[in-house]
Design goal:
Length: about 220
């Protein structure tokens, strides 16, 4: 499919896909809600494999890789896939008149088309799913590629502004406001030679009022 011009992007021409049953549907353009559904498919089904997308590569290669990721994501995102396809299509031949101008006959015709549409896309044929994905990716790959570049650039700026990703260094001791080490005493008491002494743990109440008895000095 040939690349779209700027005019085509501003006023895109509708693409109609005829399903295997013969029922025609019109593929609409991606908007915010549809994009969130698309991301839900990819994040749930493809997971870390999304990192394989290179937003700077050739547009055709990017589209093929995106289509491949979508197809392998479908088994793990069944409901998300059906909801996405339903939101990206509408019945062909709908009357687009405003409610106050539409006739009863046109309103009934629209309802019949929507009823058939809901029946067809409740559980679409595998071939229909593939055909719709191909059209959607061909339509939206340029926009998604451009959006991906912008998001990546914004993420880079955000990381620099917040310092994210920079290696953390251990703080210096003075930065932690630790107390200065107590210098060692120049004199120390000689060890007792009165025989073995037993060690005892200090109870929580130690020093609260009862003083430990000192050993009486030996008689000279």
């Amino acid at each position: 499919m040939a690349a779209e011009s700027e005019l085509d992007r501003i006023d895109p021409e509708a693409v109609t896909v005829k399903l295997e049953s013969g029922f025609p549907v019109e593929v609409v353009r991606l908007k915010t809600r549809q994009m969130f559904r698309l991301l839900r498919i990819l994040t749930r089904g493809a997971g870390p494999a999304i990192a394989q997308l290179d937003f700077n590569e050739d547009q055709a290669a990017f589209g093929q890789k995106l289509l491949g990721l979508l197809l392998v994501s479908v088994p793990d995102a069944e409901q998300e896939t059906v909801a996405f396809l339903q939101s990206m299509c509408k019945p062909a031949g709908l009357s687009e008149k405003k409610p106050q101008h539409i006739t009863k006959q046109e309103s009934e015709h629209n309802q019949e088309l929507w009823d058939r549409f809901n029946e067809e896309l409740f559980n679409p044929e595998v071939g229909d799913t593939l055909a719709l994905f191909e059209v959607i990716v061909a339509n939206e790959a340029p926009e998604l590629q451009s959006l991906g570049k912008k998001l990546r650039a914004l993420w880079t700026v955000a990381k620099k502004a917040t310092g994210m990703g920079q290696a953390e260094t251990a703080p210096e001791a003075q930065d932690l406001h630790l107390p200065e080490p107590t210098p060692a005493s120049s004199t120390s008491s000689a060890p007792s030679t009165d025989g073995a002494t037993s060690t005892s743990s200090i109870s929580p109440s130690a020093g609260s009022g009862s003083a430990r008895k000192r050993r009486a000095p030996a008689a000279v």
